[in-house]
What we know:
The complex is a heterodimer.
Chain A: H1 7-14, H2 17-26, E1 31-32, H3 33-37, H4 44-56, E2 60-65, E3 68-73, H5 77-110
Antiparallel strand pairs in A: 1-3, 2-3
Chain B: E1 5-11, H1 15-22, H2 25-32, E2 39-43, E3 51-56, E4 64-74, E5 78-86, E6 92-104, E7 107-115, H3 119-129, H4 135-145
Antiparallel strand pairs in B: 1-7, 2-3, 3-4, 4-5, 5-6, 6-7
Amino acid sequence: MVQYHKLDRTFSALADPTRRDILLRLGQGPATVSELAAPFHMTLTGLKKHVTILEEAGLVTTKKIRRVRECRLGPRQLDDAMQWITTYRRRWERQLDRFEGYLEKEKGGKQ
Amino acid sequence: MSHDVRLERVLEATPEEAFDAYTDEEVQRELFADDPSSINEWEWDLRVGGEWKIVWTPEGSEPIRETRVFQVVERPRRLVFSMALTLPDGSNLDLGIEITFEELDGKTLMKIVNTGFPTAEAADIAGKEGWAGGLDKFEQVVRERAGK
């Protein structure tokens, strides 16, 4: 069953290209905030804002290890978002099936 | 990959018949849910700026609130409305829906386009790294390609 928890946060988190690139980078393995910031030529403060949004959506987790903050891919929130879209589409399909059935019945009734 | 959720049907009806049926409140009540008894609240005001509000409870779920505002009502060709969904945990999603009815060899081609999904964002990740579905699979694919 789709878990609705944080669905809009997942969509908002994915709406930004920098955050999508952060997820791609973390897909290759954990990274510190500094390592994540380097390719974007971004300040650490700016990068941390993106990481915070991803963390709040459950897409990334962070952990302080000695003096650095390590980021990793988080739990499977993206699955929920994609599953919701699939469920939404299937609902439309069933509505259209019923609409087709209704029109055929109306046509049959008139003939 | 598109940002949209798109569907099409060829209907055994003229555009006028299809549009009138689709914008009939009683027909919409029958179409809306798999189980009509799952509809808890319903308001219908078919005019530009009018609201169509539904509160319904899918099986196994808490109630979902949908507020639709009609933006275009052009018989028999085009219907456009916004849709704001409030999900059980309070999350909000804002979508746009455009429905068109085109004459096609005596029948009607009905097209539905839902916009506002960040599917392109998820698809962007999927397309770049061959992710078929699920962030865990994506992670695995990337790591395999990186030789880890």
